[in-house]
Amino acid sequence: MDKKPTFKEFIEHICKRPRMFTLGGTFNEIAAFIMGYSSGNTTPISDRTFDQFVCLKNSFPTNYVWTYVIKESTKDDDEAISLMEKTIIEFITLKKTMTDEELFQHVMKNSLVEEGEAERIFRAFDQALLTGDKETIESLITECNGAEILWSDSYPKDVAAKLNEISSNQPIKRIPISEDGDRIKIIAQGWPFGIEMRLVNGCWKVNPDKIVELRKTNKSA
Questions:
Q1: What's the first-to-final CA gap in the chain, in angstroms?
Q2: DSSP one-letter string for the chain
Q3: What is the pTM of this model?
Q4: CA–CA separation, 35 vs 191, rounded Å?
């Protein structure tokens, strides 16, 4: 009887020959195949520990799923499949000798990314939204119709302080979205979508269009 392959061998095989297991061999298909297998079997990546590991390793907030993080961190399917394979195998290897706490400490220590001016501006904007700080918000955004909705509401001071503490302790991810580097996307805790930022006259500004639309939708619901 043939020996059943280990999960590590299974991952290596499917990532090296993706078209043997799916119609198109795309990252989304392979990731879905692996997630489906892991939901029906006990594997090293069957629980949320792996999601958190991938988030921390790639400087994402820890509330994202690993498939999204890997897809956003790579330029095409081939690179995404390769990173997926390497990340899963690294996780499996580390889990053999580390507790979850030790694992998270290890990956955070080895993936620290120094935040730049864009990240600093975004954090200031995010904090100003909590308190409805009109002056700060206006100074940090690009021109936008209906921007007044951004400072029309605010949280109580104690709630705003607690929410800011939570977000301050979470990493944020910068993803380039233009070749000249003048436009980026910020992935941050608590946001259902990436926030675009633009370099305007040498200063980073938040494009609030999607946030304004979200708030308008929530108010009309």
A1: 60
A2: -PPPPPHHHHHHHHHHSGGGTSSS--HHHHHHHHHHHHHHS--TTSSHHHHHHHHHHTT--TTS-HHHHHHHTSSSHHHHHHHHHHHHHHHHHHHTT--HHHHHHHHHHTS-----HHHHHHHHHHHHHHHT-HHHHHHHB---TTGGGGGS----HHHHHHHHHHHHTS--EEEE-STTSSEEEEE-TT-SSPEEEEEETTEEEE--HHHHHHHHHHHH-
A3: 0.73
A4: 24
Are 196 and 183 contacting, i.e. CB atoms less than 8 angstroms apart? yes
Which tokens belong to 113? 């990314």
Tell me the pLDDT of the chain averaged across its residues: 92
| Confidence class for position 70, pLDDT limits 50, 70, 90 | very high
The whole-number pLDDT of residue 78 equals 94
Residues sharing a CB contact under 8 Å with residue 23, sequence separation 6 or more, in sequence order:
29
